[in-house]
């Protein structure tokens, strides 16, 4: 287990200045809130009971969600994991960072060994690490007196670019791997996490998280970034949970149903008993962390964030979940690949049970959490993030015109190189193989069934120009023609 401890000299300075600012040298500064960020891997938009699932059970997450604000139109910055994770840490779009694919995906110079080698396009070249030059969200909190803890999946670069190199005092299990290899010990891909044979990873990580919550804080607030490996493949759960959901499926009278979306066979109903067991184990992890906070008297002083890094896995690799009414899933530029279950609990500020439908994205967490904590913003760093604190306080909108995506790669799940923009209710996708534009009104057509590009050419042209101008601004890398392609 990787652990580092720093002296919090920056925090001491901040406390002194806070006292001076109040006009009383001996005034006790207001306590900074703790931040607990739950980032789930591959969790679909409707994979929680509080987001509409009737098969999966998430009582702990549901209870937490009721205390805060649920975001119905929250987005990951990319339909695959590493780019979104980089966007959270940096406050920048993956296209600006040139971290546009999951780290380990083929580059144009080695694609000859990959199944996409004969596709019409070569993928754009990308960086396979979060540059150390970026001042991460963890570093911003660390230098302002916060203890910073990381647990779980990192997948943001090789050794030397791990959490302990990017601002986290403690790293439990985070390394280069994108999945654990196995959810039962020995964990073949989890960095430096020895365990007795057969131990279940979600249970181990939640125990480690509870330990960090309970440790002597020495008066410092903390940022706990619990980035779970769940519910990424391999599809594995405890037998007792598999049996439970197999029986539930039988009692509900549901069976496997298949539909077709974009030429792919897609699960049409949530009924996968192993995946359901993985979701329950993930929910139990959230519950145990919340329980530890309550026992330590920290629950009311803690801000909670819950988010997924990309859409649910629905078009390949077991197709374990169903994202309906959204189209497709992980690896696709349609809503199923980028729209995420998200909520924020800010005690005393967010109205319990409130719902926000204004679009936000993963780049926004950096400035938002700094503002919540009363820490200095880093405008030169989180250039693509917009603080959504006004939404948490009850405002209806932010001063932002559009949200952008750029994925110049072929996804393992069937998606093709593309870019997209959402402006108001409209979303435009540009597919690079054909140059085809698709336009959807998401308010009226959340399932993206009705392409309006031919019916509304002026709107399509307007959004396409916006998208092209944005790509130029961020210097987005584009795919190239593949000389191996025949056709």
Tags for this model:
487 residues, alpha/beta, Alkaline Phosphatase, subunit A, ten-stranded mixed β-sheet, four-stranded antiparallel β-sheet, 18 strands, disordered N terminus
Write the SSE topology.
Elements: E1 2-3, H1 9-21, E2 34-40, H2 59-66, E3 69-75, H3 81-90, H4 94-97, E4 121-122, H5 137-142, E5 147-152, E6 170-172, H6 201-214, E7 222-227, H7 239-252, E8 258-261, E9 264-267, H8 273-295, E10 302-308, H9 335-338, E11 339-345, E12 354-356, E13 360-361, H10 365-373, H11 389-392, E14 403-407, E15 418-423, E16 426-431, E17 437-441, H12 457-474, E18 480-481
Parallel strand pairs: 2-7, 2-10, 3-12, 3-13, 5-6, 5-7
Antiparallel strand pairs: 1-6, 3-11, 4-18, 8-9, 10-11, 14-15, 15-16, 16-17
Helix pairs in contact: 6-8, 7-8
Description of the molecule:
With 487 residues, the protein is α/β, with parallel strands linked by helices. The chain has a single domain, classed as Alkaline Phosphatase, subunit A. It is 26% helix and 17% strand. It has 12 helices and 18 strands. The strands form 4 sheets. Strands 1, 2, 3, 5, 6, 7, 10, 11, 12 and 13 form a 10-stranded mixed β-sheet that branches. Strand 15 (418-423) and strand 16 (426-431) form a beta hairpin. Helix 6 packs parallel to helix 8 (273-295) and helix 7 packs across helix 8. The longest helix has 23 residues, at 273-295. The protein is globular, with a radius of gyration of 22 Å. Mean pLDDT is 92; it is low at 1-28. Keywords: Calcium, Hydrolase, Metal-binding, Signal. Residues 1-27 form the signal peptide. This is Arylsulfatase.
